[in-house]
Design brief:
alpha/beta, Helix Hairpins, Chitinase A, domain 3, two-stranded parallel ribbon, 3 helices
Length: about 160
């Protein structure tokens, strides 16, 4: 069984989503199904079919979250240090063409959000950064072509 790396914050977010689905969404959809059943013939009852479809989606997400949480490997980012890029590192990158700086933290797949500066460990840029050190240059092939970056800073903060 493959372990899924994630930060403590990512684990907490997934736990909160699972709790919300189990304690609020699931009972709500059960009530909606019961209400729709009261409207009579189920074969032509659009409300019933929509509620059953929503229930299927909720139950699928609950199973997915439970599986991911069960296989998760929570990595304490604050216990890691050094100049080498590893999971959980926050990296300040400088585009070697434009000198524009961007800061990313390498996180698990379910935590990633480019808008919030959280880069998935499976992203090509993250894979190119792993094992590199502050001061190193990397080249990454992107859909828009090849891009070169310099690693300006590597820190480990949660």
């Amino acid at each position: 069984m493959e372990r899924i790396p994630m930060t403590a914050a990512g684990f907490t977010r997934l736990e909160a989503e699972l709790k919300e689905l189990k304690s609020n969404a699931r009972p709500s959809i059960i009530q909606a199904i019961a209400t729709a059943r009261e409207h009579g013939d189920l074969s032509e009852n659009a409300e019933y079919h929509a509620a059953k479809e929503q229930q299927s989606l909720i139950e699928g997400r609950i199973a997915e979250l439970a599986d991911k949480l069960g296989r998760s490997e929570v990595i304490d980012v604050t216990s890691i240090s050094g100049d080498q890029v590893k999971f959980g590192a926050t990296i300040l990158l400088a585009d070697e063409d434009t000198d524009e700086e961007t800061r990313y933290q390498i996180v698990g797949e379910d935590e990633s959000s480019i808008e919030q500066g959280r880069l998935s460990i499976t992203a090509p840029l993250a894979r190119a950064l792993i094992g590199k050190e502050q001061g190193d240059s990397i080249e990454v092939t992107t859909p828009g072509g090849s891009k070169a970056y310099e690693i300006v800073e590597v820190t480990y903060v949660d």
